[in-house]
């Protein structure tokens, strides 16, 4: 089977630090290569793959700001679509824009919808409902206006996350620093719990960081910067718990799965996909506000860290994700 994997071109695939869509695209590509598929990864030129790499730019537009994002995206997508006849199937991890080519090519396109940036993009998905082959990354992140082939949870390379049975005493916030992700709420939870908090992630909203986060930094509330794969594993594995007090209906939440793979329980606001990722009172706690989160911190020792790891391996491994997608490819190509 000849498969084209279309990744975004914001960051390298796999990413050096941030880039969840790029990470998933990489995990799919590498998993398919292991299963004997002929894979071409369409991504940035500095991307890493055991398959074939096809690129129109050396670096992503977030890592080289001299480039125009829209120009890069148009060149990138058209590069694949002009070669569509070389492949049995195209796996789109690049949002809605590639769908606009789907009526012009014969190669089927399966699209993983990694979330909706706005309800305004839904008409594009809706237009291609009959030929789009849409996959959601959680049952909660589905539009009633769209037809879905399946839900496939994002999968991670479990060997990249070491189990840690003996954590330190700090709480961890791990994610982009933005109102949506609840960094300020995490600080308040830590303060009321009288625990140290480490904050790791890219500063996506500079104003929010300057106004809500930076003034509260001290010896107990520390911003440790961005965290690449090696540092990520250490930070997650040694954490007493991951705080995930989100202010939006998150489609998935990679750091939640990553933490549990390390054995670290998660305390999350009960929104979006969180009830699908977290087993309440078994791999963490689903809470509704800061006070409930503070109470949950006091109950973390009741959580079996080994069970957290086992649960995450059973649900969020790269092998499971790739097997699920491979089955969907066969279903599409057989016409069933």
In short:
With 336 residues, the protein is α/β, with parallel strands linked by helices.
Helix content: 25-40%
Instruction: Report low-confidence residues grouped into runs of 5 or more.
Output: none
- Major sheet summary line: 7 strands, parallel
**Large-scale geometry:** globular
Q: For the largest sheet, list the strands in their spatial order.
A: 3-2-1-4-5-6-7
Structure write-up:
The structure is a single chain. Helix 7 crosses helix 10. The protein has helices at residues 20-34, 69-81, 122-127, 183-193, 206-213, 229-238, 254-261, 274-277, 290-297, 305-316, 318-334, and strands spanning 2-6, 38-42, 52-54, 89-92, 109-113, 134-136, 148-151, 171-174, 197-200, 221-225, 241-244, 266-269, 284-287. With 336 residues, the protein is an alpha/beta fold. Helix content is 33%, strand content 16%. Strands 3-2-1-4-5-6-7 form a seven-stranded parallel β-sheet, sandwiched between helices. It has eleven helices and 13 strands. The radius of gyration is 20 Å and the shape is globular. Helix 7 (254-261) links the parallel strand 11 (241-244) and strand 12 (266-269). The mean pLDDT is 96.
């Amino acid at each position: 089977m000849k498969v084209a994997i279309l990744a975004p071109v914001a960051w390298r695939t796999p990413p050096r630090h941030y880039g969840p869509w790029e990470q998933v695209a990489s995990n799919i590509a590498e998993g398919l290569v292991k299963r004997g598929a002929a894979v071409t990864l369409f991504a940035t030129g500095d991307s890493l793959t055991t398959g074939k790499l096809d690129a129109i730019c050396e670096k992503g537009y977030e890592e080289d700001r001299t480039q125009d994002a829209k120009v890069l995206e148009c060149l990138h997508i058209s590069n694949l679509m002009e070669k569509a006849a070389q492949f049995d199937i195209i796996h789109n991890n690049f949002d809605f824009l590639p769908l606009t080519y789907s009526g012009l090519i014969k190669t089927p396109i399966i699209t993983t919808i990694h979330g909706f940036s706005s309800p305004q993009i839904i008409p594009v998905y809706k237009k291609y409902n009959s030929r789009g082959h849409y996959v959601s990354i959680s049952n909660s992140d589905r539009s009633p206006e769209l037809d879905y082939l399946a839900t496939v949870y994002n999968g991670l390379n479990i060997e990249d996350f070491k189990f840690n049975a003996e954590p330190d005493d700090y709480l961890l916030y791990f994610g982009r620093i933005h109102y949506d992700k609840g960094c300020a709420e995490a600080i308040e939870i830590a303060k009321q719990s009288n625990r140290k908090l480490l904050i790791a992630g890219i500063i996506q909203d500079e104003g929010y960081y300057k106004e809500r986060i930076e003034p509260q930094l001290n010896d107990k509330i520390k911003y440790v910067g961005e965290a690449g794969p090696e540092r990520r594993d250490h930070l997650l594995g040694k954490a007493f718990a991951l705080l995930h007090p989100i202010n939006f209906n998150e489609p998935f939440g990679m750091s939640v799965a990553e933490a549990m793979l390390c054995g670290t329980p998660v305390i999350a606001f009960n929104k979006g996909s969180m009830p699908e990722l977290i087993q309440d009172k078994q791999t963490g706690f689903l809470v509704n506000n800061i006070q409930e989160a503070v109470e949950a911190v006091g109950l973390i020792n009741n959580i079996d860290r080994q069970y957290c790891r086992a649960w995450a391996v059973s649900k969020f491994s790269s092998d499971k994700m790739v097997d699920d997608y491979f089955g969907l490819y066969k279903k599409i190509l057989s016409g069933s």
